[in-house]
Amino acid sequence: MDRSIKGTGEKIFQVVICVILLWLAICAVMPFILLISSSFTAEDALLKYGYGFWPSQFSLYAYEYLFVTNRDKIFRAYGITIMVTVIGVCLHLIVAPMLAYPLSRRDYPRRNVLSFMVIFTMLFNGGIVAGYIIWTQVFHIKNTIFALLFPGLVMNAFNIVLYRSSFASNIHPSLIEAARLDGAGEFYIYRKIVLPLSLPILAALGLMNGIGYWNDWNNGLYYISDTKLYSLQLLLNSILQNIQALSQIVSQGGSNIDTSEMPSSGIRMAMAVIGTLPVMILYPFFQKAFVAGITLGGVKE
After folding, report:
1. What does the alpha-carbon distance between residue 79 and residue 72 come to, in Å, rounded to a whole number?
2. What is the DSSP letter of 289?
3. What is the pLDDT of residue 151?
4. How far is the CA of 110 from the CAs of 63, 115, 144, 172, in angstroms?
5. What is the pTM of this model?
6. Do 239 and 70 form a contact (C-beta atoms < 8 A)?
7. What is the longest distance spanned by two Cα atoms in the chain?
8. Closest by Cα among 88, 112, 90, 86 to 164
9. Residues 152-176: pLDDT tens digits?
């Protein structure tokens, strides 16, 4: 009797949990459906009926404005963003784990000093003005592709701490000692033992860093004034500002341009779709490694 009651209780509990998770999944997907639907809705329908989960008046004008009127700029910005994301993630996966690995080794004599220097940057920094002066007047990266790569993304103190914790908890010292007895050097140990055993955390932080590069527009805003070097996010922001400025001029009676067909609301949705769609497509392929990486070390023996 007790077993049957226990089994029935477990089934009810599982059903309740499944219903709750299904509802949370629907709540997470609904904003994206609303976003995509609104991007295919005519501007006057958005103003009249508001946003909906199905286009009340289907229109491609927002995408035509982006991909026809600004076609060359959009594709150039896509290319720059893809290139910066790929190169930036590769640099991050090369540089950041190499700094974190010595910090995870208890036998490294300068471990505490370097750890303090890394953690100190998480708590204190010189601010935007000091960073701008250093990057522009010392490293001279203004209006170069390096301005989209280096400031604040390749080396992130929080990521270093995550790498260090993962290495310290998952790379047993006996493996390193055994490799040393066999005559392996430090770089060989790092390349053949540490990295293969750390693929989940590398994939997780690599994905997070890639999303950071893809969505970054602050670096372009600070260091890029050449439109040929605009990233996708910076270009979309520039297009939106131009539309808002034009609409404001017309509303003040300073121009005879008819902007009734210009999708100021719909274009925001189309820009959001263009900016997030590649990430939404690629994320399911990295989801397993991402989940494994962020939960790594959560269960202790």
Report:
1. 11
2. H
3. 84
4. 55, 9, 35, 20
5. 0.79
6. yes
7. 83
8. 112
9. 777 788 888 889 888 888 888 888 8
Q: Which of 194, 188, 191 is nearest to 170 (CA)?
A: 194
**Any idea which residue has 């007047």 for tokens?**
137
| Residue type at 1 in one-letter notation | M
Structure token digits, residue 193: 């033992």
What does each C-alpha distance from 212 to 72, 116, 149 come to in angstroms?
Answer: 24, 25, 11
Q: State the Cα–Cα distance between residues 251 and 90, nearest whole angstrom.
A: 48
pLDDT tens for residues 54-71? 888 888 888 887 788 778
Collect all residues with Cβ–Cβ distance below 8 Å to 100 and sequence separation of at least 6.
Answer: 159, 160, 161, 162, 163, 164, 167
Structure tokens at 183: 């005559």
Q: From CA 58, how far away is CA 36, in angstroms rounded?
A: 12
Q: At what angle do helices 71-104 and 232-251 cross, to 10 degrees?
A: 130
